[in-house]
Write a structure and sequence with these properties.
The structure is a single chain. By secondary structure, the chain is of the alpha+beta class. The protein has one domain. The strands form 4 sheets. It has a two-stranded antiparallel ribbon with strand order 1-8. Strands 2-3 form a two-stranded antiparallel ribbon. Strand 4 and strand 5 form a beta hairpin. The longest helix is centred in the first third of the chain and has 18 residues. The radius of gyration is 16 Å and the shape is globular. Bound molecules: iron/sulfur cluster (2 copies). One iron/sulfur cluster (SF4) binds next to loops.
Length: 172
């Protein structure tokens, strides 16, 4: 399947999920907490697609991203976050698309966004490590979402940017 077509379908599905849980979600433009601290694991296919977004950026923004990549720390701010907004939003990886939702990722295991501890998504329905509403009943982990693709290796963004010859700290 074509990756862009697949993303369009995924986005529609996720839009429905965010609507179903709208009462527990407080994501809004300018809230960038989830882009400021994380590992951002993503696969090769997603990295290549992100590169398309990077290449399409204005030179000034590209320079800012490059500067961020040089200063990037493991587990720290995503270098594509510019002025509290994702500079490659339509090209962002799966983890960024699904982040914010509470979903079932095993028979009984529920994954929740970590901003739950910052009084954000689902905080009002979270007690003693559990949410007391029904989670989204789809496993939104990246390997599951991409199961029909030959998605390649999965690495953290920091590792990709430091060890990928096609997308290194010296690219411009
Ligand atoms: S997932 Fe959490 S931190 Fe990220 S935009 Fe939504 S509310 Fe903000
Ligand atoms: S790619 Fe965009 S949405 Fe994902 S962490 Fe980076 S800035 Fe945030």
């Amino acid at each position: 399947m074509d990756y862009e077509l697949f993303l369009r379908e995924l986005d529609l599905r996720l839009e429905t999920y965010f609507k179903i849980h709208k009462d527990f979600i407080c994501c809004k433009e300018g809230c960038s907490f989830c882009c400021e601290k994380g590992d951002y694991p993503l696969s090769e296919i997603e990295l290549k697609y992100m590169m398309n977004g990077y290449i399409a950026l204005e030179n000034q923004i590209k320079t800012s991203v490059q500067k961020n990549i040089k200063n990037m720390e493991q587990g720290g701010i995503c270098p594509f976050l510019i002025n509290k907004r994702c500079s490659i939003y339509p090209y962002r990886p799966i983890i960024c698309r699904v982040h914010g939702l509470a979903y079932l990722c095993g028979e009984k295991t529920v994954k929740v966004p970590y901003c739950i501890n910052e009084n954000k998504n689902y905080a009002g329905v979270y007690r003693n490590g559990e949410i007391n509403i029904n989670p989204i009943k789809e496993n939104l982990d990246t390997p599951q979402i991409l199961k029909d693709f030959d998605f390649g290796e999965i690495r953290n963004l920091y590792n990709w940017l430091n060890h990928s010859p096609g997308f290194s700290r010296t690219d411009s």
